[in-house]
Model the fold of this input.
Amino acid sequence: MCKRVILSIFVALSVALAATAAEPTRATYNINDNWNFYFATDADAANASVVTLPHTWNRECGEGDYLRTTANYTRELYVPQLWEGRRLFLRFGGVQSMADIFVNGYYVGSHAGGFTAFTLEITDRVKFGADNFLRVVVSNNMRSDILPVSSDIDLAGGIYRDVELMVTGQNIISPLNHSTEGVYVMQQSISEDVAKGVVRVYVSTPTMDHATVTMRIVGDDGYEVDHHVVRNAKLVEERPIDLPFEIAAPKLWSPTSPTLYRVEVVLGDVRHPEDVITLTTGFRDISVNEDNRLCINGKPVAVRGVNMAHDRQGKATAVAPHDIDSDLDIIADMGANAIRSLYGPHSSYMYERCDRDGVLVWVDMPFGRSPLSFSDICYYPSASFRNNGLAQLEEIVAQNMNHPSVVMWGLFEQVWQRGDDVVEYVRELNERAHSLDPSRLTVGCSNSDGDINFVTDLVVFRQSVGYMKGSVEDVAVWCRQLASNKSWGDMRYGVCYGEEGSTEHRTEHIERAQRGTRHHPERRQTYMHERYASIISEADIFWGVWLSSMFDYASSRRPYGLNQSGVVAYDHVTKKDAYYLYRALWNDSEPTLYIPERRWTERRNINQTIDVYSSEGTPTLMIGADTVPVHRVSRCEYRADSLVINGRVVVTAVDSLGVQRDSMVLNVGRSTLLR
Done:
C-alpha cells in the first residue's frame, strides 16, 4: 500500500476522531506494511527490500542457514495535523531479541527480550502534518545479558509479531505498564460461593489532578455482576488504583466449562470518558491435592500436555493467527488439554483461544540450557543477567495475567552447569513470581538431582532413559523409586519425555541412538512413546504428562537444523505414528483406528509384526483376505506377531464396531532393498 493511500486512511480516521471529540477514546492502527529491511552490514541501504510484518531473516531452517546478526527496519509514517494534542504510542508484539527504536533520528527506547511485547510513547518526537521516519535496529546476536543464553530453539530474529500505532487522549489508562492494557484482574479468593479480588488500574493523566475510575464486570449472560467506582482519586504518574470486586455464585472457568467474564474500566465520566478498556477473563482456583493431582476449582484434571515451540516451516516465528488456529486444532484433535510455551510466551491471540477452548497453559520464561552441549553456559552470575531475567519474568506475568487458561509460570528448563550454582537464582525467580501473582503455581523442568527440584511449587522431570542409555523398561523402575522415596513425599512432580524421529528415516532393528547420530528412524521414536505411555499410565503417580514435543522445530545445533522430537513434523501437517498413539489414548470424543509403521513399506524379513492403535476395543486385522489373530499389548495398542509375509500385501484393520477402517501396503521379501 503506498504512502498516500495510508495518508488517506489516516486522515479519514482523524476526521472521525475529531467528529467525536466530545468522547475521546483511543484508536489502534496496524502498521505492518511498507517496511524497508536491510542488514547492518549492507553497504548501501538503497538496496533494501520491502517487507511486510511479521518478518524474520531466518524463515528457512537447515544446516548452516541459521543467521545471528543485526538488521534495520525503516518506514515512513505520515501523522495528520488533526492528531496534534493527542498522544501516540508504538506497540511491538515481539522483536527478537534486542530492539532499539528511533523516530526522526531520535532514540526513543529499547527492549531486551525476544518473547514479550513492549510499548514506547513517541508523542514528543513526532512531526504532525508531516512524514515521520521510523527506524528499528534489531539483533538476535548471542549476548550474555539477555536470556536465553543457551537454547535448543533458534532465535529467528526480526520483528516477528505485529506493530501497532496507538492514538489516545491526554489522560489514559496507561499502555506503558509492561506493555499491557493497564488493567489487571488480580484474583485473591475463588470458590463456587464467591470470587474476590481487585482490578488494578494504572493511569497516566498529565492534565488531571483528580479523576473518577469506574469498573464493572459483566457475566456471559450479559448481566452485570459487580460494579465499583473510585471518585476524585488523586493521580500520580503510573499510580495504580485498586477497585475491589466480589461476585456471588460465580460461573467458574475450567477446561470443561471455560466461562469468561467481561471487565470494563472507564477513566472519567462514563458518559464522556477519557479512556475505556474492555477485556475478558475467567475466575478459577488452582491447586495440587495430596494425591499429587492438579486441581482446577478443587476438581482433579488429568493433564495431557505438549511442549510447543514458536516456529514452523517456511515462516519460522513469523506466524499468522490462522497458523495458530491450525496448530490448536491439531492439538485438540490429538486430545491434549494443556500446552507448554517453550522459552517464552506465544502471542496473546493463542492464549485468547485457549481461554475460550478451555486449554491449560504453562508459560516458560527463557531460562534454559541446550541439552546438546555439556560446555554450554546457561547462567551468568552478573547483575545484568539477573536483572534481565527478572524483567522478562515481570513482563511475562503482567502480559498474561488476565488469561484464565494460563495456570503456571515456568521458571527454568533443564538448567545446571559446572561451577556457579543456579539454585539461588531460581529461588529469586520463584519469590518474584509469587509476589507478582500469588494466584498461580510455579514450575520447573528438571533433568538433575538436588535442591533445584524443591524450589518451585511443581517440578517436571525430563526423562530419556532408553534413548541413548539404559532401557525403556527402566522407566518402570524409576517410577517405583519415585513413589517409594519418602523424602520426596511432599514433592509435586510430573513427567516430560520424547525423542527424535524422522518420517524419512527407516530401520529394520530398533536400537538405542548414538550420540551425534544423524539417523533418527520414526520406528525408534514410536517404540519409545508406546512403552513410556504404557508404563507411566500404569504408574499413575504424576500430576501431569508432557510430550516433548508437539511439532518439530528449528534447532541449528542439531543435524538437519531441526529438533525432530515432535509428534507432528516441521510442516505442521505430517503426523507421525506417535500422534495417532496419543489420539487413541487421549481423544475421548472421536474414535481412532490406525496402523503404525505405514511409511516403512519395503521390508526384507518375511517374519513380521503388525501393530494397530484402536480406541474402540480389539480390532480385526486382515493380511490380504486372511484374518489374523491379534492380542492386546497395552491400552489402545494391539498386535499381531509371528506373521509370515512374502511379496506385496494389503494390510487392513477394522474396529470392533465395524465402522472405522485403515489400510496400508507392504512389500516384503529378502530381495527387497531397505530404503
